[in-house]
Amino acid sequence: MSTDEPSVVVHLALLVAAWLGYFVLHSLLASLAVKRWTAARRPDWMPLYRLGFNALAVLLVLPPLWLTLTGPGPVLIAWTGVGAWIANGLALAAIAGVLWSLRWYDGAAFLGLRQWRERIGAVADREGFAISPLHRWVRHPWYSLSLVLIWTRDMDPSFLTSAVLLTGYFVVGSRLEERKLIAFHGERYRRYRELVPGLLPLPWRHLTAAQARALSVEPLG
Fold it and tell me: Which residue of 25, 49, 68, 94 could cross-link 149, Cys pair, CB 3.0 to 4.6 Å?
């Protein structure tokens, strides 16, 4: 209804501001520059940095998520009939893919528990260069699976706005993340980036299991 249009606009403005604020702060705290600045001035904080980063990321994402799920406005995109079955099937497959991929991650290090328990104050992550089955197809499988989950949902104005913003952030964020990976792994990651697409899997661009193992261990400059 026309009387609802001002409230929709205000809500979307708040939603955009909340997401942009989250993106900026999340990217800054994840950057090597901020980590090095913290390590130089408060090295005693570094064992807790990853744990605090993850806790803050969860807390700060709650406001934009709440605005996304409570926004006014009509349904703009709705999956129905066979389309709903396909969309929900893809969403379940994406969730299953994330859960299956966890076996190739060091969960304690990812959460920051290992750094805290072992009092690790290093700026760089300690994980070596390893290519999981999903990483043989895309360089950022969790981002790719998240996009599947996002775009298989029904869309009202708030959800559609969040979907567009998150898609853009995954594209930009993956590029920022790769700067750190190149800093840590150098030529090995550059070679991997040439062979495997970023977010969208392409059948003609992937690594076999043997190629992934070779790239993980071969000496590179």
Answer: 94
